[in-house]
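Service request form, structural biology core

Requester: graduate student, group of Dr. S.
Request type: structure prediction, single chain
Budget code: on file
Notes: please return the result as structure tokens.

Sequence provided:
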Amino acid sequence: MSVILFDNYDSFTHNLVQAFLVMGAEVEVVRCDEVTPAELLQKRPARVVFGPGPGRAESSGCLVEAVRLLAGRVPILGVCLGHQAIAQAFGGRVVRHSVVHGLATPIHHHKSGIFTGLPPAVPMTRYHSLVVDPDSLPPCLNVTAYSDDKAIMGLAHSQFPVYGVQFHPESVLSAEHGFMLLKNFYEMDGVPLPA
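Core staff response, request fulfilled:
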């Protein structure tokens, strides 16, 4: 199965690539500023992962626009910056938060979707200073996970297979639970692309 990994110039991109290769995926890495959303769609991937990166989603090439175009056409997972892009693509806002850098903290979740089979309060690694503003969430996005300080750590679209996580499941500190979350995304039922 083909996975396109949308690289926002982040050092964790390699970890995501390796995780999906272990699962047997054919992975193609595309840089955020070297592809258009239409070109992504033409590749007809089975999955798209919008990876982490520095800065803000609106400054990362065609990231937000690509989420808008691909949502409902291919299953999407957004990691960190990719998660924030999902919120912004559907009308949410991203705001400053206290800096969390390289800490594995408990993530509370709804035990379904990409979180299926994970223990409650699963430790996942966080590297961020921005979060999705809960007061700005559109009705189509549901909170699926949160931190002890109530920051949104997971989102899912109500109609499309679109998922976001603020934390880094690909980090070594997230261990086997992070890999399981990525595998849940990889193995879930997708949506057919229009011919």
